[in-house]
Amino acid sequence: MKALIKKRRNELKEGLREEFSQLGNRLGREAVLVSLALEADPSSEVYRNSIKKKGESLGVRVKLMEGNREDLRRLNRDPGIDGIIIHCRRENFLEYSSLISPEKDVEGITPLNLGRLVRGEDGPRPATPLAVMEILKVLNFPLEGKMAVIVGRSIIVGKPLIFLLLAENATVATAHSRTKPLERLTSQADLLVVAAGRPHLIKPSMVKEGAVVVDVGINVVDGKITGDVDPQVKEKALLTPVPGGVGTFTPLMLFSNLALLLRRKLEGKTSHNSD
Ligand code: NAD
Fold first, then answer.
1. 229 phi and psi, to 5 degrees?
2. Is the CB of 182 under 6 A from ligand 1?
3. Which end of the chain is more exposed for a tag (fewer CB within 10 A), N or C?
């Protein structure tokens, strides 16, 4: 499976490189993405630097900045900035994410873009759920009529994924920290997507034979990256790897959103057009 994931990653990268080159010709400059840290958080530095590196490999200029909400408003108005990613503490996420211009929202997290997702209208989507959909394409897993169970209901992963899976005609159920007992739900899933942030939460006994299990979790245990699914699950289901699974696609999805926003901009569409 890792080889298929790598192949798809390379195809996506190639496609995005080509697209940013064409978009750059139309814009008369490179696309520009700003990663704005609204609060100091050393743990996001590795992530921010990796986005910068990835952007540069795709022909996108990524500026790493620190600032406050006034700076964010300035970036929203600046025609030389095409996309904005924010970094802030979890408790401030809803407030700050609603200040981003929907036209520059490469994470698909503004109220307007999340609303467009619920309404089935096009627009940037949160990157991790998009990455899950990419893995399902790699696995060639047809969703129509399937029972999909998502473990986790966060605003950036579980909740938006509900609507992406529904749009593909899956039947979707969501489990979370108060779901009791968890296995009653997980054991019915044809597709189980786990985004709980709990190492090895899902054991083989909780999974249906022959299911597809997408492990979104990234946890560090004893210095090693591990997922939310016990690797023994591989004995009875198709399990995506961690690392080398969903996380392979997540940063690329930010750039895929950026390309979409730029196409919309060049076509004179705002997020308020209904297409
Ligand atoms: P979060 O903490 O915001 O949400 C976790 C969710 O899991 C909550 O809805 C909670 O109710 C649920 N949950 C927690 N414990 C549970 C339990 N015992 N049983 C059932 N549900 C439980 O986390 P998040 O930001 O959504 O991230 C989830 C995981 O995905 C983390 O490990 C994170 O590192 C990882 N992640 C990976 C990628 C990627 O690209 N692979 C991207 C984003 C997040």
1. -115, 130
2. yes
3. C
**Inter-residue contact 249 to 15 (CB < 8 Å):** no
The per-residue DSSP string of 69-84 comes to: HHHHHHHHH-TT--EE
Nearest CA to ligand 1 atom 15: 177
Residue range 83-92, pLDDT digits in tens: 999 999 999 9
Q: pTM surpassing 0.90?
A: yes
Number of domains in the chain: 2
Cβ burial, residue 87 (10 Å; 0-12/13-18/19+)? buried
Instruction: Identify residue 273 by its one-letter amino acid code.
Output: N
From 61, 87, 103, the end of a domain falls on 103
Identify whether residues 196 and 135 lie together within a single domain: yes
CA 6 to ligand 1 centroid distance, Å: 24
Residue 94 structural domain: 16-103
Distance in Å, CA 157 to ligand 1 centroid: 7
CA of 71 to the centre of ligand 1 (A): 30
What is the average pLDDT across 127-138?
98
Do both 230 and 171 map to the same domain?
A: yes
Q: Which residues of 113-130 are buried (b: 16+ CB within 10 A; e: fewer)?
A: bbebbeeeeebbbbbbbb
Measure the CA–CA gap between 227 and 43, rounded to whole angstroms: 19
